[in-house]
Automatic annotation (TrEMBL):
Organism of derivation: Ambrosia artemisiifolia
Annotated protein name in UniProt: RRM domain-containing protein
Classification via PANTHER family: OS02G0815200 PROTEIN, RRM DOMAIN-CONTAINING PROTEIN
An example Gene Ontology CC term for this record: chloroplast thylakoid membrane
Source species, domain of life: Eukaryota
Pfam families the UniProt entry points to: RRM_1
RRM domain location: 45-109
InterPro entries: Euk_RNA-bind_prot, Nucleotide-bd_a/b_plait_sf, RBD_domain_sf, RRM_dom
Length: 109
């Protein structure tokens, strides 16, 4: 960044930013080996969904029966475009996340 203000704005804007399957961690660089203070990112209500059938392209339908789905994504291989067989579903609340997990854990889609 060209100024301290730009760096601080970038940290404020992008630290904790949800980038598909990961939350970004953005801090100002620390001089000479010192460590910046770690910032705590509030956990989202995101569920890992594994062992998806190759043809599954949207996990939202099964989960929406257990609460409001904020986001549902199947992860694809960038080079082949083929499903990786897993994805993530973000629910609106912890209760909905727990209900969906309890109801669908081990469920065959």
């Amino acid at each position: 960044m060209s100024t301290v203000e730009e760096a601080e704005k970038a940290v404020e804007t992008y630290n904790g930013y949800d980038l598909s399957v990961r939350l970004l961690t953005v801090n100002k660089a620390a001089p000479g080996g010192s460590q910046p203070k770690r910032r705590v990112v509030v956990n989202s209500f995101k569920i890992y969904v594994g062992y998806l059938a190759w043809q599954v392209d949207n996990s939202e339908q099964a989960f929406s029966q257990h609460g409001k789905v904020i986001d549902a994504r199947v992860i694809y291989n960038r080079e082949t475009g083929r499903s990786c067989g897993f994805g993530f579903v973000t629910m609106a609340s912890e209760t909905e996340m727990n209900d969906a997990t309890a109801a669908l854990d081990g469920h065959v889609c």
